[in-house]
Amino acid sequence: MYDLIILGTGPAGLSAAVYAARYKMNFLVIGAISGGTITQAHQVENYPGIEGVTGIELGKRMEDHAKKLGSEIVADSIKKIEKKEGHFILHGSKEYEAKRILLAMGADRTKLNIKGEDEFLGKGVSYCATCDGPFFKDKTVCVVGGGNAAVTSALYMAELCKKVYLIYRGEELKAEPAWVEKLKAQKNIESVYSANITEIQGENRVEKVVLDTGRIIGLDGVFIEIGSTPNKALIADLNLHTDNRGYVTVDSELKTGSKGIWAAGDITQNGFKLRQVITAAAEGAIAIYSIYLDTKKQN
Ligand SMILES: Cc1cc2nc3c(=O)[nH]c(=O)nc-3n(C[C@H](O)[C@H](O)[C@H](O)COP(=O)(O)OP(=O)(O)OC[C@H]3O[C@@H](n4cnc5c(N)ncnc54)[C@H](O)[C@@H]3O)c2cc1C
Fold first, then answer.
1. How many other C-beta atoms are found inside a 10 Å radius of the C-beta of residue 119?
2. Pocket flag, ligand 1, residue 222 (CB < 6 Å)
3. What distance in Å separates the CA atoms of residue 147 and residue 83, rounded to the nearest whole number?
4. Do residue 148 and residue 234 come from a single domain?
5. Ligand 1 test: best mutation among 29, 38, 47, 248, most atoms within 8 Å of CB?
6. Roughly what angle, to the nearest 10 degrees, separates helices 11-22 and 277-298?
7. Looking at the domain assignment, is residue 120 inside a domain?
8. Which of 62, 105, 152, 279 to mutate to test the pocket of ligand 1 (most atoms within 8 A of CB)?
9. How far apart are CA 266 and CA 10, in angstroms?
């Protein structure tokens, strides 16, 4: 029985592990993807003190740091969280028990929910430019979205591809102005605003997209970067308060309001939410301080 299980090995979970290790807590970290979502980032340029690093490298450094301080990290995928009297059982490839849990599971990629999206997944449709980009060398692709993830993905794909379309439903990109400036300077990126893809078409692979403006664009790949939705299935049985999109509501200590459960990182609602490495890491640290004080009261 651990005092705490941290569920998630992204920036929130690994930052929490660093703090928990230094508070000498009795804890375990469980995560399916080491480093978390940031490993999908081609380049991270906004984490203070680390001027430019690939997402994979940043995730690895965080994991190495947590391990070096003595964190026990298990690679496993949790299918169910059971709340018992005074403790929790997490069901993965085996069962893990703890008195408290910190939910740091991030969020899953949002789908467009259009015709062709599921059919061509892995045959031209992708949710990760960094992972799948190299398969599209010298081809034409589009990136869908208008935030940082979409713009940085478009810039990355522009290094590899003949031509990149950035298709965004709004009139003005939401990404950081520094990224937008780079995007505008890139000759082989064409931005298409106020447009939605209604269908992805092809024979065996993606060949074209149909826009609601009537335009049809011939291309080889569609990269969907329109944000994320939290992992609702896993937390459904815990009866936590969430916002209308399913993000877990937390207070300033990252407490969920349900005894023994804290949440940190992209999974939380938390006011004016900036879903980034730095905010996820900060929430992981704050949650651990709150949990540490709780262990002092109740162990
Ligand atoms: C393409 C892209 C580029 C980005 N670029 C930047 C950037 O440049 N700068 C920046 O600051 N942010 C960037 N972000 C955002 C950043 O990646 C996230 O804000 C950050 O990773 C959130 O951290 P987290 O720990 O809350 O969640 P995540 O990083 O999503 O980690 C969640 C963890 O939970 C685990 N998990 C989930 N469900 C389960 C389960 N059932 N069982 C076991 N483990 C589970 C996952 O495997 C993972 O380890 C980018 C995101 C994307 C997609």
1. 13
2. no
3. 37
4. no
5. 38
6. 40
7. no
8. 105
9. 10
Residue 10 C-alpha to ligand 1 middle, in angstroms? 5
- Please state whether the predicted TM-score (pTM) of the whole model is above 0.90: no
CA of 217 to the centre of ligand 1 (A): 31
Is residue 115 assigned to a domain?
no
Give the domain-ending residue among 224, 252, 269: 224
Cα 102 to Cα 140: distance, rounded to the nearest angstrom: 42
Give percent above pLDDT 90 in the chain.
81
For 56-101, write each residue's pLDDT tens digit.
Answer: 999 999 999 999 999 999 999 999 999 998 899 999 999 999 999 9
Round to whole Å and give the CA distance between 222 and 153.
11
Instruction: Identify the pLDDT of residue 95.
Output: 98
Tens of pLDDT, residues 129-186: 877 898 899 999 999 999 998 999 999 999 999 999 999 999 999 999 999 999 999 9
Q: Is 234 in the pocket of ligand 1 (CB under 6 A)?
A: yes
List the catalytic residues: 128, 131-132
pLDDT greater than 80 at residue 32: yes
Report the nearest atom of ligand 1 relative to the CA of 228: 53
CB of 147 within 6 A of ligand 1: the answer is: no
In the beta sheet, which residues pair with residue 140?
Answer: 163
Domain count, the chain: 2
Residue 285 Cβ inside 6 Å of ligand 1? The answer reads no
Is the pLDDT at 3 greater than 90? The verdict is yes
CATH of the domain at 264: 3.50.50.60
For the Cβ of 33 lying below 6 angstroms from any atom of ligand 1, the answer is: yes
Residues 211 and 232 placed together within one structural domain of the fold: no
